[in-house]
Amino acid sequence: VTNSRCVHVFLVRNRVEKSLVSFGEGAKSTLLESSYPHLVQLYSRLRDLGRQALVVVSEDIVSRPRVMLARICQHAGLAMDPQQLSWEPGPKEYDGVWAKHWYRNVWASSGFEASVGSHKKAMSIPDDQKALLEEVIPFLSFMKRRAVRAASLAGESSGPKGSVKGGTHEFHQDPRNARVLIGIRDGVSGDFSLVPRSCASVSVLDSGFLLGDGAWEGIRLHNGRLLFFREHVDRLYQAMKALDISMDVSKEEVREMVEATTTANGMVGGVHIRLIVSRGLKLTPYQSPAATVGWPTIVVIPEHKAASPEVKEKGIKLITSAFRRARPDTQDPAINCLSKNTCISACIHAVNSGYHECLMLDPQGFVATCNSTNFIMVKGGVVLSPTTDYQLHGITRQNMLDLAREAGYEVR
């Protein structure tokens, strides 16, 4: 580790369960035998020493050998040789004692593209290997988050873009957001934890993920204050009551979770907070609330995010959407529910048509709202706004109308 002449390359496998199964051919299946704890320990040790290590994923090497081998050679200070992409089939004198167990597929192949490795095969995973997999995954996830992936090296999109241009959704990703801590309240254990964004998650059996069963609020942090927090949390609890989701925490406890998250991140202003509550964990992917175990899942996502001045200066282009706001007996628009399919469809309509935002109509064909923002207009010195019959009872909307009245405008 301390030898400066050494370079370090860590090879991990995405489908790690397949390599764990092979332990049955000789070695005992244990967490230590998997070596993943040692990989994390060694990687961390190198980092502490200021040594740069490269992490690669074996499936990337198989699918993109030229790109990945070039990167490995670059890390090692070697020239890439095309001869590295192929080999003569059969055993080699330098293969080592484990070759007959590990290299059978390599011996049968002559190159990466022609590989017939186990990465292409489906296989049954024994119960004891599933238990081991549960222990290995946290260590594997740590290494994979630090891996150089083939798609990024090839210039392909491997995740969300760093910004969105134009319109009400315009933003530029603040690099500080990569390191923010996310607040997560587990509804089963009752634990509230602060988790790095890169590894923050909820269960795939969470009601919010499975069914969009829950609600959310968007709150601004400005000059150390949560703007209109009482109004936002009141509306959130009204939504919980309408959705028949029992909250086991008080409004003050929710505030404490939000403040704990922003304080831990050293946030004072210019911050948007997404406060999300789902019904909680499901025992099985059913709609019935009876299939829910524990209390609601609560997530606090804070981001450094400022409004774009360009949008204020240039304005936005609207198009009337073919998708209409629903009646309260279909999907109550007064609930800021997690299921936003209609609004997302309207958003897609706008973008695909070359516009920024959609003007959405109510079932009778009157203007209701936009797909993600309030709609207010001024005509003849009179401030006009649609009724709240088919839109969220917007807190920002109401503040704008109150300010207009205070400024002497007639508001309808």
Structural class: alpha+beta
Based on CA atoms alone, the radius of gyration comes out at: 27 Å
Sum up the overall morphology in one term.
Answer: elongated
Largest sheet: 6 strands, antiparallel
Quaternary organization: single chain
Measured by DSSP, the beta-strand proportion falls in 15-25%
Strand order of the largest sheet: 6-5-12-9-7-8
Number of helices: 15
Cα distance, first to last residue? 72 Å
Family: Belongs to the class-IV pyridoxal-phosphate-dependent aminotransferase family.
InterPro entries: Aminotrans_IV (IPR001544), Aminotransferase-like (IPR036038), BCAT-like_C (IPR043132), BCAT-like_N (IPR043131), Class-IV_PLP-Dep_Aminotrnsfr (IPR050571), P-loop_NTPase (IPR027417)
GO molecular function, one term: catalytic activity
Pfam family, one: Sulfotransfer_5
Could you characterize what this model shows?
The protein has 412 residues and is an alpha+beta fold. The chain has three domains: 8-153, no CATH class; 183-305, Aminotransferase class 4, branched-chain amino acid transferase, N-terminal domain (D-amino Acid Aminotransferase, Chain A, domain 1, 2-Layer Sandwich); 316-411, Alpha-Beta Barrel (D-amino Acid Aminotransferase, Chain A, domain 2). It has helices at residues 16-21, 31-34, 36-48, 58-63, 65-76, 99-102, 104-107, 127-144, 150-153, 207-211, 229-242, 251-264, 309-314, 341-352, 395-406, and strands spanning 8-12, 53-57, 163-164, 171-172, 181-185, 192-196, 214-222, 225-226, 271-278, 281-282, 292-293, 297-304, 318-320, 357-361, 367-370, 377-379, 382-384, 410-411. Helix 14 (341-352) links the parallel strand 13 (318-320) and strand 14 (357-361). The radius of gyration is 27 Å and the shape is elongated. The mean pLDDT is 90.
